[in-house]
């Protein structure tokens, strides 16, 4: 872990009051023993429950926790982007707050990242979702790969390790977090996948329906494909910078 000096764990949160104590305890238990500096950045996306009360309490007890709170619900992509902006370190780990992502997978992903990659993606090889969600995800991934031409198995897994300097260069739009692999690849990122644990949801309810996400995804893919074909690329012949 010596190549990885400091990380920021960015977690978007929307009505997850029952999961936050457990989530932070797991993150702390995994990262505290490692030889690195770390912080957790919790981004509250306008929750209507007691999530912010729990976050305030956690922040008072743990100096590693920083937080942002939106005035109103702006969506997961906006929460991720706010977390990227606020992160103090160039290595960013992202994950969901519903406890389906397992923080114990982070060390292996950091070790892979340290081998020279710019993006390491969690691959939920054995998902704990409903059959309908698993089938919808497989179909969506297949369609996405055919259009964006990336080779990632599971772009929908929020557990990722990324280089912040590249994230800050990306175009920002609603649902952009679902297309980070092809967007980062267009910026020259080296990408790897690591199989990760996937757990049943903790407390609370899923924030996404299966088919409304699929319909929105069609429009997103059209826009992402346009962006990818218009990405500016160049190689320097020489310079005196």
From TrEMBL:
<keyword id="KW-0812">Transmembrane</keyword>
<keyword id="KW-0328">Glycosyltransferase</keyword>
<keyword id="KW-0808">Transferase</keyword>
<protein>
    <submittedName>
        <fullName>Glycosyltransferase involved in cell wall bisynthesis</fullName>
    </submittedName>
</protein>
<dbReference type="GO" id="GO:0005886">
    <property type="term" value="C:plasma membrane"/>
</dbReference>
<keyword id="KW-0448">Lipopolysaccharide biosynthesis</keyword>
<dbReference type="GO" id="GO:0009103">
    <property type="term" value="P:lipopolysaccharide biosynthetic process"/>
</dbReference>
<keyword id="KW-1003">Cell membrane</keyword>
<keyword id="KW-0472">Membrane</keyword>
<dbReference type="InterPro" id="IPR029044">
    <property type="entry name" value="Nucleotide-diphossugar_trans"/>
</dbReference>
<dbReference type="Pfam" id="PF00535">
    <property type="entry name" value="Glycos_transf_2"/>
</dbReference>
<dbReference type="GO" id="GO:0099621">
    <property type="term" value="F:undecaprenyl-phosphate 4-deoxy-4-formamido-L-arabinose transferase activity"/>
</dbReference>
<feature type="domain" description="Glycosyltransferase 2-like">
    <location>
        <begin position="8"/>
        <end position="167"/>
    </location>
</feature>
<dbReference type="InterPro" id="IPR001173">
    <property type="entry name" value="Glyco_trans_2-like"/>
</dbReference>
<dbReference type="InterPro" id="IPR050256">
    <property type="entry name" value="Glycosyltransferase_2"/>
</dbReference>
<keyword id="KW-1133">Transmembrane helix</keyword>
């Amino acid at each position: 872990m010596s190549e990885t000096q400091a990380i920021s764990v960015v977690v978007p949160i929307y009505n997850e009051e029952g999961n936050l104590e457990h989530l932070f305890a797991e993150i702390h238990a995994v990262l505290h023993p490692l030889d690195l500096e770390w912080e957790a950045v919790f981004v509250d996306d306008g929750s209507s429950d007691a999530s912010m009360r729990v976050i305030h309490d956690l922040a008072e007890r743990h100096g590693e926790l920083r937080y942002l709170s939106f005035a109103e619900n702006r969506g997961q992509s906006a929460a991720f982007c706010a977390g990227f902006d606020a992160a103090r370190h160039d290595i960013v780990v992202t994950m969901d707050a519903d406890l389906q992502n397992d923080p114990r997978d982070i060390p292996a992903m950091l070790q892979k990242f340290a081998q020279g990659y710019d993006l390491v993606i969690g691959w939920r090889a054995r998902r704990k979702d409903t059959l309908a969600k698993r089938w919808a995800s497989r179909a969506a991934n297949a369609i996405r790969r055919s259009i964006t031409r990336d080779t990632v198995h599971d772009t929908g897994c929020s557990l990722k390790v990324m280089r912040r300097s590249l994230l800050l260069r990306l175009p920002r739009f609603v649902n952009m977090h679902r297309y980070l692999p092809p967007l980062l690849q267009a910026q020259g990122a080296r990408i790897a996948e690591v199989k990760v644990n996937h757990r049943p949801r903790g407390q609370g309810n899923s924030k996404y329906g299966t088919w409304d996400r699929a319909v929105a995804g069609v429009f997103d893919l059209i826009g992402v494909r346009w962006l990818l074909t218009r990405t500016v690329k160049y190689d320097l012949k020489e310079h005196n910078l």
